[in-house]
Amino acid sequence: MLMNNNSMGRTLEEWKLKHPLLADLVSAQEVFWTNPGYKPSNNPVPIKETEIQEAETRLIRFAPYIAQAFPETQRTGGFIESPLIPIPNMQGYLGKRYNIEIPGHLWLKCDSHLPISGSIKARGGIYEVLKHAERLALAHMVCSNSMTTAVLNSSKFREFFSRYSIAVGSTGNLGLSIGVIGAKLGFRVTVHMSSDAKAWKKELLRSKGVQVIEYTSDYSKAVEEGRRQAENDPSCHFVDDENSRDLFLGYAVAAYRLKNQLAELKIAVDSNHPLFVYLPCGVGGGPGGVTYGLKQVFKQDVHCFFAEPTHSPCMLLGLATGLHDQISVQDIGLDNRTEADGLAVGRPSGFVGKAIETLLSGACTIKDEELFVLLQALSKTENLRLEPSALAGMPGPARLLKTESGLEYLKRFDLEKKMSQASHIVWGTGGSLVPKEIMDHYLNRID
Ligand SMILES: *Cc1c(COP(=O)(O)O)cnc(C)c1O
């Protein structure tokens, strides 16, 4: 623990003096933090826009394969995309629950209903595996860059890919995503699952022929073990959730897709119509990639906030202290235990933290009990069912409008008068694959 002497050069008491917010984090209180390092424009660009465009081009190239291999994507032409829907009843509910009227419009981005793996991980995970498969095929098979990727859905290619393996460490959903697409292509896939991973996620993977290795420790350990085992095998590709650029790029593509969706729905985003986006955060890749893409597309007109469980505020801790992956929630005495399995991460990605440290507007934390209250409310008001992690961003608009730090942010960027024209998007990151009996259990958690 950080309490006494430590590698961070300060004791916890010294850190608390420097960052009063830490006291609330340590005692697992809900907080709303605005980022003092946030810069509305002229940000450094560690990842070029052309790289995100290249990722989108690759996904377009693979669409014929996806459409063939996963018939549920035929409707969208092999694109893995989710709807953006208005949730006015939930907006009214939130106003009552938090005792603050929420002006503007509230939307839910339904990554919970993304095809193939039912979570935001279908973006990054599938992209990284497709890119890897393409690289192998171009290097070893008779085919060209312009190959119609539909040929991948053949026994010839499955036999070829079966000579290679893919490994990943996960709290559940990334494993699901990599496992499903990897096994479909013919790869041998090993998923290293942390103790938080739900039994049904492991069973689903095993039913697809994926090897699942279970750990009694948390996410960081599962990733570390996976990385170590993969290092000894040159035919194995390790999907590194803590450091992968390809995962990040796959997530970032969401921004271009959202831009088109907003245009189709005639939702303006400009200097008089601000856009606020609330993203559940685990290790940071998913919300970080989406934020990175959104800031490139909408610049100072979009405001991105992360949401984490009170017991696992790893990204908030890394950003607020500037220590990124050099500090973990365990270092400040938190246990990293939460029902929000997708967010049960104690140490953030340093790569992501540094990429977004001037782009992110802020972050908030939420208690597990509140996740279940909101899960039930969304089901009642909008007939939409998400997994607990996916509700983390839901209190975001109310917190922004109600907390001292939120109001100060609105004032600082001259947004107060524009709030009636604002759009709020809560990123619903997962849930459509949750088995019915488990969802019923979630829905009955709160009387
Ligand atoms: C993984 C996950 C997140 C967060 O993504 P990270 O890349 O880990 O930050 C959010 N919600 C759900 C449901 C997830 O599975």
Automatic annotation (TrEMBL):
Q: Which InterPro entries match?
A: D_Ser_am_lyase (IPR011780), Ser/Thr_Dehydratase (IPR050147), Ser/Thr_deHydtase_PyrdxlP-BS (IPR000634), TrpB-like_PALP (IPR001926), TrpB-like_PALP_sf (IPR036052)
The reaction(s) catalysed by this protein are:
D-serine = pyruvate + NH4(+)
UniProt xrefs under NCBIfam families: D_Ser_am_lyase, PRK02991.1
Q: Which UniProt keywords apply?
A: Lyase, Pyridoxal phosphate
GO BP annotation list: D-serine catabolic process; isoleucine biosynthetic process
CDD domains listed in its UniProt record: D-Ser-dehyd
Per UniProt, residues of the Tryptophan synthase beta chain-like PALP domain are 81-397
Q: Top enzyme class of this protein?
A: lyase
| GO molecular function list | D-serine ammonia-lyase activity; hydro-lyase activity; pyridoxal phosphate binding
EC number(s)?
A: 4.3.1.18
Instruction: Identify one Pfam family in the record.
Output: PALP
Matching entries from Gene3D superfamilies are given as: 3.40.50.1100
Name its co-factor(s).
pyridoxal 5'-phosphate
Q: Which residues carry this modification: N6-(pyridoxal phosphate)lysine?
A: K121
Family to which this protein belongs: Belongs to the serine/threonine dehydratase family. DsdA subfamily.
- State the name under which the record lists this protein: Probable D-serine dehydratase
Is this entry keyworded NAD? no
